[in-house]
Amino acid sequence: MFVQVIQGQVSDAEQVHAALDRWVEGLAPDASGWLGTTAGVTDNGQFIALARFDSAAAAQGNSERPEQDKWWSEFSALFSEDATFHESDDVVADLVGDPNSAGFVQVMQGRGTNPDRARELMTEDSGKWADFRPDMVGSIAAMYDDGDYTMAMYFTSEEEAREGEKKEPPAEMKAQMDELNSLAVGMPSFFDLKHPWLYSPR
């Protein structure tokens, strides 16, 4: 899997949503290798999207289409400042349910000191974590720039996610969490998408 992360400040979430709808209706059918997009706008106007492709070549092919260039020219005008991009084929997907059913998505961005160990920890005991946090239907993490990452976590609802956060994990699972947190450099940033836009090929 290859992931493009796009983010930036916007002033009108509905215009942004409508523009993405137009892409899915008009351009997605001919976007070879497109697997889906998770996007949304936070309460303070921060737009963030994770576009998933089956390969870097597929993503590049989409970017080179004239109709994509025209759409992006119009879409980028909705940003208050230039959008930022990250791209990665170092992706860890843990999908215990259907992320397209999520009612709440939390995106976390940060930096770690040991991406290889973080990758191992994120894939350990997936079944146990699914049993412990049934409110979490999956996650997708993209790692880039030698330690930076963007991770989207999909939840059934914000209310159930907040309740799940209060639960104390068993000792073994807590040790995994503590080790993962120990790899972090500084505090991560969180982007709460209370009304996520979840797109997938039809």
> Can you write the helix and strand succession as a string?
EHEEHHEEEHHEEHHEE
Q: Using the CA coordinates, give the radius of gyration.
A: 17 Å
Helix/strand class: alpha+beta
CATH class of the largest domain: Alpha Beta
Strand order of the largest sheet: 4-1-3-2-10
CATH topology of the largest domain: Alpha-Beta Plaits
Give the N-to-C terminal Cα separation: 19 Å
Largest sheet: 5 strands, antiparallel
Number of domains: 2
**Uncertain spans:** none
Q: What is the share of helical residues? A: 25-40%
Report mean pLDDT, rounded to a whole number: 92
Shape: globular
Give an account of the 3D structure.
This protein has 202 residues and is of the alpha+beta class. It folds into two domains: 87 residues, Alpha-Beta Plaits (2-Layer Sandwich); 103 residues, Alpha-Beta Plaits, CATH 3.30.70. The protein contains seven helices and ten strands. A five-stranded antiparallel beta sheet has the order 4-1-3-2-10. It is globular and about 55 Å long. The model has no long low-confidence stretch (mean pLDDT 92). It comes from Kribbella alba. This is ABM domain-containing protein.
